[in-house]
User: What shape does this take?
Amino acid sequence: SLLYFDGFADMQLEMTFTGFRIQDEADNTIVNVHRNAPFSLDIKADGDVSLAGGSVFIQGSAPPLSLDILANGDVSLAGGDVFIDTSTNRLGIGTTTPGAAIHLSATTPQILFDDINEAGSEWLMNAHQNSFTLFNYDTSEHVLYFDDLADMGLQMLSDRFRINDQLGNPIVNVARDAPLSLDIQADGDVSLAGGDVFIDTSANRVGIG
Assistant: This one.
């Protein structure tokens, strides 16, 4: 049977210049197929939806709707804005060639971490041009800020915290072992506590106050 209509179904078929529709008894569109490129399919359902013999399954029993896709190949959504490379198990957002497990590509890529616990907070990771920041929404402060033009790196180790130069040499080294130690390697003067402690490296002198 190429077409089959049952009057008890309270549904109707409509062919228009721009597409193909299936409507309910109140003329609400249930299925809408657009002929304009790129080809699109809109489905409105209160229940489950199965496509391609169940390869695409949309569970509609309770909001929010869920979408399960079983695919032997890659999966592309929203015109490639969300892309799953099944050969490498990588997810690309804004790219169809993800280079890592999660690859976010945008003019200002951002990731928001929202801790929904009672004492939780929101953290925003942001990358823009030559900088990378970690921002705390609760305190409205940048907790970490990196600028690759500075030719410096931050290194967190199990027993210490370091700031390295572009060659990987430690400039500041804070050891966690008691008593706490702080090593500073500097070619110029060193000022601590707003200048209350000052090291004049040219004369090998320490000024306090």
Summary: The two ends are 96 Å apart (CA to CA).
